[in-house]
Write a structure and sequence with these properties.
- The protein has 13 helices and eleven strands.
- It is of the alpha/beta class.
- The chain folds into two domains: 153 residues, D-Maltodextrin-Binding Protein, domain 2 (3-Layer(aba) Sandwich); 111 residues, D-Maltodextrin-Binding Protein, domain 2, CATH 3.40.190.10.
- Strand 6, helix 7 and strand 7 form a beta-alpha-beta unit.
- It starts with a helix and ends in a 5-residue tail after the last helix.
- The N terminus is likely disordered.
């Protein structure tokens, strides 16, 4: 049996080491949810995004509403992930960091070519027959003859001209195609080449200010600007409306049924097509999209965009 002196010594020793250990424990405290994660902690999140074709404030508002609507319709957490540019959206989709993306015609084709199994789900009612507008600064282009076809675009040679984003379908690919049809090369513009504003609303602002004499812009953004009063018709005019072509569409990853459950892709498509103006939030979404509804989009219609993309070196 240990002596009383030994027992006292052991007690003192234990008391001396226990205090710092107890004091250090809060540094390693683990949240209870991590020790015993429930279904909410492990459920996959649907990550949606879009090409940044307009100002970030509008995009954050629009896709925040879309995320809330889909979350309610599907019973899943949905988050909007902003992108810095068009190519970033294609890259993030290819890497699997995004599940559903609102692409333009060109970026949608690029994303599907780079992502096996990706599916086109829906487009707006206006996207099967979309249009680009060639716009001009009213004062700078006052001497132009009316532009009635691509052949008349040759009048833009020598002008200060801007596209939108370099990867935009309506702001670069298709207008460049129509310029080419009219015999206008990019090197024919003032300064030896066109400008790139980065977005459609920026193109309108630059042409309206006179920084550029003319430019190419998404018709929906132009129409929205007219409604909101951000387009000043005394300073900027429409020079030509192009023939129609297919443009924007929702593209989904091919593995959503595996990640979210059988039939999820079909439910997601149905939720998009069901967006009708039946609630205040849905009215806001459709208004911001500049559409009356979404419809199922056949993927083969974008063969025209792929062919033009290859012809102009945007798809290899």
């Amino acid at each position: 049996m240990p002596s009383p002196a030994l027992v006292a010594a052991l007690a003192l020793a234990l008391a001396g080491v226990s205090q710092p250990v107890v004091a250090a424990m809060p540094r390693f405290r683990v949240p209870l949810a991590q020790l015993n994660p429930g279904p909410a902690a492990t459920a996959p999140v649907l990550r949606i995004s879009a090409i940044p074709d307009q100002n970030p404030e509008k995009l954050n508002r629009l896709y925040g509403l879309v995320a809330d609507e889909l979350s309610e319709s599907l019973g899943r957490k949905v988050v909007y992930v902003p992108m810095v540019d068009y190519s970033a959206a294609v890259t993030a989709f290819r890497k699997g960091d995004l599940d559903l993306v609102w692409f333009g015609g060109l970026t949608g084709v690029q994303a599907r070519l780079q992502t096996p199994g990706a599916r086109v789900l829906a487009q707006r009612d206006v996207d099967a027959a979309f249009h680009t507008l060639f716009i001009g600064n009213r004062e700078a282009t006052a001497g132009l003859q009316p532009i009635r076809s691509a052949a008349d675009l040759k009048q833009l040679r020598g002008r200060r001209f801007t596209f939108g984003s370099e990867s935009s379908t309506s702001g670069r690919l298709m207008p460049q195609y129509f310029l080419q049809q009219g015999g206008v090369k990019l090197t024919d513009f003032a300064g030896g080449g066109p400008g790139f504003s980065g977005s459609h609303d920026a193109t309108i602002a630059l042409v309206q200010s006179g920084a550029y004499e003319a430019g190419a812009v998404n018709e929906q953004v132009w129409t929205s600007g007219l409604r909101k009063g951000t387009v000043d018709r005394s300073k900027v005019v429409v020079l030509w409306r192009t023939p129609p072509y297919p443009d924007y569409h929702w593209v989904a990853q091919g593995n959503l049924d595996r990640r979210f459950g059988a039939g999820f892709t079909g439910r997601l498509q149905a939720a998009l097509v069901a967006l009708k103006p039946t609630s205040q939030r849905r009215v806001q979404i459709l208004d911001l999209f500049g559409a009356r509804q979404f419809v199922v989009a056949p993927a083969d219609q974008y063969g025209q965009i792929e062919a033009i993309g290859r012809q102009l070196g945007k798809i290899r």
